Amino acid sequence: MKANIGVRLSLVVALIALSFTATAAGPASQNTIQHPLTKAKTISMSETEASNSVPGNNDAFFGPVPKAEQIFYIRFLEIAPTPIPVSKYFFLLIRGWIPASTRQKLNLELAHLAAATLTISSSAVLDDGAKLERSSVAIPFRTVELGEGAHIGIRNATGAYVDHLALEGQNEILTDYWIPGPFVKTGVWTFEVVASLGGEGKEGVCLFALSLTQRLEGTPGW
Ligand SMILES: *[C@@H]1O[C@H](CO)[C@@H](O)[C@H](O)[C@H]1NC(C)=O
Fold first, then answer.
1. Cβ atoms within 10 Å, residue 111
2. How far is the CA of 161 from the centre of ligand 1 (A)?
3. Shortest-distance Cα residue to atom 13 of ligand 1
4. Is 37 in the pocket of ligand 1 (CB under 6 A)?
5. pLDDT at position 36
6. Which of 8-22, 26-40, 46-60, 68-82 comes out lowest in average pLDDT?
7. Higher pLDDT, residue 112 or 24
8. Mean pLDDT across the stretch 26-40?
9. In this prediction, what percent of the chain has a pLDDT beyond 70?
10. Interatomic CA distance for residues 155 and 153, integer angstroms
11. What number does the ligand 1 atom closest to the CA of 159 have?
12. Which end of the chain is more exposed for a tag (fewer CB within 10 A), N or C?
């Protein structure tokens, strides 16, 4: 089981690296066309967009699973710095909980949270016009080292680091991560993170789903 998780985590790192690896066209950094930053929240938003906007300092929206189907209530999401830089650490903090009424209605048990998964997808429209199709990977949603210097951590309501989300009370999900600039293909990237319950009868029940679109700029080689 442990080895299996190890293999899947290496896959995540590989996927993320792949997402940023040049296909055939050579270094993305040669592209000198300047684009304004994508600032989804500061460009005038439609009402639907505004209501789908995730509370906190971030440029994320609820989706692709509709907000109404997400059972984990997100009080706020901080992404620092925003927009996400390349070749520097960035941090995510999600604070939220599963409302007691939802817990009771769905007969949730700890096992459903212990078996929860995260599906991380990325796609991009590059400056040279190329489209990178959506690719995704699923990993266990728990406190884990994703790779060297990249982690997911979960804290419960009393601040203790725990293996997975707690059934009752507030949870905090923290991540530290960095995207290696030399692997980044310059363009507008869309990332989607979908957290789902696992365990008998609950597979596919969405905890939360977030979508973030922003520009990433590749940097010259190592
Ligand atoms: C948080 O986790 C710690 C360590 O497992 C435990 O002692 C504490 O009771 C938990 N707090 C809550 C509110 O669940």
1. 15
2. 9
3. 157
4. no
5. 41
6. 26-40
7. 112
8. 39
9. 80
10. 7
11. 1
12. N
Closest CA to ligand 1's atom 6: 160
User: Taking a C-beta distance cutoff of 8 angstroms, is the pair 123, 64 a contact?
Assistant: no
pLDDT in tens, 65-104: 999 999 999 999 999 999 999 999 999 999 999 999 999 9
Q: What is the 3-state secondary structure (H, E, C) of the chain?
A: CHHHHHHHHHHHHHHHHHHHCCCCCCCHHHCCCCCCCCCCCCCCCCHHHHHHECCCCCCEEECCCCHHHCCCEEEEEEEECCCCCCCCEEEEEEEEECCHHHHHHCCCCHHHHHCCEEEEEEEEEECCCCEEEEEEEEEECCCEEEECCEEEEEECCCCCEECCCCCCCCEEEEEEEECCHHHCCCEEEEEEEEEECCCCCCCCCEEEEEEEEEEECCCCCC
Domain extents in the chain:
2-216
